[in-house]
Specification:
Layout (H helix, E strand, L loop, with lengths): L11 H12 L8 E4 L6 H8 L3 E6 L4 H13 L7 E3 L7 H4 L6 E5 L8 H14 L4 E7 L8 H6 L2 E5 L23 E8 L6
Parallel strand pairs: 1-2, 1-4, 2-3, 4-5
Antiparallel strand pairs: 5-7, 6-7
Family: Belongs to the methyltransferase superfamily. METTL23 family.
Subunit structure: Interacts with HSPA5, HSP90B1, TUBULIN, UGGT1 and UGGT2. Interacts with TET3. Interacts with STPG4.
Pfam family, one: Methyltransf_16
């Protein structure tokens, strides 16, 4: 998919996150997975093909991205994967009625700093409802000035850095894709920070 609109393109981060899912494929059957900002949905499609129960989501304000999610599912013989309109930072009936989840996926959602707090407030809401869940996310380093550390602290979240070499994603090409290339991609897992005494 070569359209460079946000959700209409397979970004390098999606390939790296899909590689992480593939490396952990034996743990995915039966897991309940939500992909946020899914767009072309490569990570969610990989998770579903590996046996996870997947829900794809993108902004309810971007119907073309929601349609792209549906098209990706059909092309990958996954016609029953639900696609929801969820907008970061907005508590909607769809967000409130989500079934329990184990893993939240997000590839390159930390793209525009004006969205960072909306993303993390949504993640916090989901993790509060699902305290054992984790947010698996990859992001491209675009500016040394961009950081989510203060927002993680504000929203009582913690992150663990996952080295790309630990799952074979530190190469120029992944799964026959040249997309990761020379981009600086990072991966982290975000979860609720436990307060003292818990």
């Amino acid at each position: 998919v070569l359209d460079s609109q946000y959700g209409m393109y397979v970004w390098p981060c999606a390939v790296v996150l899909a590689q992480y899912l593939w490396a952990h494929r034996r743990n995915l059957p039966g897991k309940r997975v939500l992909e946020i900002g899914a767009g072309v949905s490569l990570p969610g499609v990989v998770a579903a093909r590996c046996g996870a129960q997947v829900i794809l989501s993108d902004s309810e304000e971007l119907p073309q991205c929601l349609q792209r999610c549906r098209s990706s599912c059909l092309m990958n013989r996954l016609p029953h994967v639900p696609v929801l309109g969820l907008t970061w930072g907005r508590v909607s009936p769809e967000l409130l009625s989500l079934a329990p989840i184990d893993i939240i996926l997000g590839s390159d959602v930390f793209f525009d700093p004006k969205d960072f707090e909306d993303i993390l407030s949504t993640i916090y809401f989901l993790l509060e409802k699902n305290p054992q869940a984790q947010f698996w996310t990859t992001y491209q380093v675009r500016s040394a000035d961009w950081s989510i550390e203060a927002l993680l602290y504000k929203w009582n979240l913690k992150s663990i850095h996952i080295p790309l070499h630990s799952f074979g994603a530190d190469k120029e090409h992944l799964a026959s894709s040249s997309l990761p290339g020379r981009h600086t991609i990072e991966m982290m897992i975000i979860s609720l920070a436990r307060s003292e005494g818990t």
